[in-house]
Amino acid sequence: MLRRSIKKARQLILTARLSVKASSMYGSGYFAVLFHALRLCRERQFLPAEAFRLGLFNPMLSCDEISKYISRKNFTKVQKSLNPQSWEPFLKNKGILYRFCLALGIPVPKLYAVCFRETAGWCFTGAILATPDDWVEFFDKKLASEFVIKPSMGAFGKGVKVFGKKDDRYVDSFGKFYTAGEIYYNMISDPEHDSFVIQERLKNHPAIIQLTDTTQLQTARISTVVDSNGRPCIVHTHFKLIMGTCVTDTFEHGLTGNMQAKVALDSGVLEPAIRMAPDGSGIETVPIHPKTKIPFAGFRLPLWPQACALVMETAPKFLPLRTIGWDVALTPDGPVILEANIWWDPPNHHRHSDEILDAMLRSTREISLKGYASWGRCR
């Protein structure tokens, strides 16, 4: 009880502080902004920082505009009514996910090895890697010249490292060199993660490189729901764009500086991209790629029908998990599933979360609409 009270007090203080900033930005009185924000967070279950980043502290927003957004808390409630929580590690642990996909012939990056802090690891040859010497031999003699290391239970692209081999050492994306032993030691001494996957480095399709002028992998988010009859449908799609020196395409609520562009499901054509506004409040539209000057609107993603077909074929194989946010790489060799997200974020930045929620509820009629229906209404 005390912990909950402290948490509520902190959220209230944060709301008050953000309201000061928002009142200046939107030219509205402080108390008008504060009361609007408090009501928004109470009735629609937004966290203060979440609502502020989406530009929802603006007291001039209409009910219809606000209804285009859904809080992470409310969206997770819907997901938990579709996905058994006990199956969370099945998707969140990339080692388990990749081994399952490989067994079923689902295209994923080649899995070279899995490393654990406390126990022996495994490599694609079937060998058990038990000692530091085993791992050094694996890196130096059995691994491809380029590879990616990820925390098995990582999120938001944190801890992901891309390596290339140069002579007898390995260099990461920032030009830092390592020996095989140093890479292994960094994995087993990581303070946050106790297991890692070593996998193939996928390549972007040439058309994507032409649009973005980066070789770092960028993926399409394709979110599916499987109805009570086992039929899948796609409820949302967007393409994730890397900006600056980022190694991964993670958006992380706009905080990374990366961008996203909504994709037309039927054609694979992009809309103008979006990113977080420089002042951290709200979303702004970006019509052309800042680096290549190619317009986003009208650009057709390669292999789009194949990518959609892949997730539609794959989604029922993951039952009883009913809704998944797939990250699909569009490579020269075809679409490849990079990740499968059980608690995928509501794509609020694209301003149609109400449509997504409606589509999810329509395809899962056994879920009671009571309670959910009020989220999109103003009082």
CATH architecture of the largest domain: 2-Layer Sandwich
Q: Average pLDDT across residues?
A: 92
Largest sheet: 8 strands, antiparallel
What is the spatial order of strands in the main beta sheet?
3-2-1-8-4-5-6-7
Structural class: alpha+beta
Overall radius of gyration: 22 Å
Number of strands: 15
The span between the termini is 30 Å
% residues in beta strands: 15-25%
| Helix and strand element order | HHHHHHHEEEHEEEEHEHEEEEEHEEH
Question: Overview of this structure, please?
Answer:
This protein is α+β, with helices and mostly antiparallel strands and 379 residues long. The protein folds into three domains: 2-61; 85-92 and 205-362, 2-Layer Sandwich (D-amino Acid Aminotransferase, Chain A, domain 1), CATH 3.30.470.20; 110-200, no CATH class. It is 32% helix and 23% strand. It contains twelve helices and 15 strands. The strands form two sheets. An eight-stranded antiparallel β-sheet has the order 3-2-1-8-4-5-6-7. It has a seven-stranded antiparallel β-sheet with strand order 13-12-11-10-9-14-15, sandwiched between helices. The longest helix has 25 residues, at 2-26.
Would you spell out the secondary-structure blueprint of this structure?
Blueprint: H1 2-26, H2 30-44, H3 48-53, H4 63-66, H5 72-80, H6 88-92, H7 94-104, E1 111-116, E2 121-123, E3 128-129, H8 132-142, E4 146-151, E5 161-166, E6 169-172, E7 177-178, H9 180-188, E8 195-200, H10 206-212, E9 219-226, E10 232-241, E11 259-263, E12 270-276, E13 283-286, H11 304-314, E14 323-331, E15 334-341, H12 353-362
Antiparallel strand pairs: 1-2, 1-8, 2-3, 4-5, 4-8, 5-6, 6-7, 9-10, 9-14, 10-11, 11-12, 12-13, 14-15
